[in-house]
Amino acid sequence: MSDAFSVDLDSFSLCASTADLDEEPAAREHADLIEFRMDLADDPLDALADYDGDPPLLVTNRPHWEGGETAPYGRLDALAAAVEHAAVAAVDVELATLRGRPAGTNEIDAEGLLDRARERDAAVVASVHDFDGTPAPATLDGLLRAAAAAGDVGKLAVTARTTGEALDLLTATHRATIRGDRVATMAMGEAGRHTRAVAPVYGSRLGYAPVDAADATAPGQYDLATLRRLVDDLS
Ligand SMILES: O=C1C[C@@](O)(C(=O)O)C[C@@H](O)[C@@H]1O
């Protein structure tokens, strides 16, 4: 992999989140990375083969059971094929998958996918999503610890129903950063929206935003230009 396509997880990176790699020209100005939501794309491997943009790619192929669109069959195989592309600098794998949740029919298993990512120098984002709420602080700590240990960065997206829950996530982010865990956090939903701008102040390494707010890939996302400005202003 060329150095041009790598991700620095020791500082914050902003991902333009999209199902359409043709958005690259619009994303390039503000994004450090493009999160390619393979599960939301029509022919993701063909689109990857045609990609000749500047920002490195983070590939995500989210299953139904974690808020995505991909059926289990061939899901990990598609990610394994994706990391073969030079532009792919990182791959998102759910913590549940890494912990052995049955992945459906795939030639490769989670361990094989991790090995493939390592061989290709692709960073692994071990992710956890809670679309219903925000777990108690001790659970937030446990999830961040486990995710950070399972991948190169542990990502936790929860749903904040109150600003107090958003604050719980920020506090857990701060605690994780202080103990040396590399994490990325965001609270979905209106009450958590500001965490997308503020969590990087507490050590969150990744943020996600659509080029156009109408194409949000999660509740409460800012558009890309707005999140770039907010993060830059606060850092
Ligand atoms: O996991 C994440 C974070 C996210 O859910 C968000 O809340 O911004 C958006 C997803 O596209 C990405 O895979």
From TrEMBL:
The keyword Repeat does not apply. It is an enzyme of class 4 (lyase). This is 3-dehydroquinate dehydratase. It comes from Halobaculum saliterrae. Keywords: Amino-acid biosynthesis, Aromatic amino acid biosynthesis, Lyase, Schiff base. Pathway: Metabolic intermediate biosynthesis; chorismate biosynthesis; chorismate from D-erythrose 4-phosphate and phosphoenolpyruvate: step 3/7. GO terms for biological process: 3,4-dihydroxybenzoate biosynthetic process; amino acid biosynthetic process; aromatic amino acid family biosynthetic process; chorismate biosynthetic process. Homodimer. 3-dehydroquinate binds at S17, E35, F36, R37, R62, R196, T217, Q221. Belongs to the type-I 3-dehydroquinase family. The active site is at H129, K155. InterPro entries: Aldolase_TIM, DHquinase_I, Type-I_3-dehydroquinase. Involved in the third step of the chorismate pathway, which leads to the biosynthesis of aromatic amino acids. Catalyzes the cis-dehydration of 3-dehydroquinate (DHQ) and introduces the first double bond of the aromatic ring to yield 3-dehydroshikimate. Its EC number is 4.2.1.10. It comes from the Archaea. One of its GO terms (molecular function) is 3-dehydroquinate dehydratase activity.
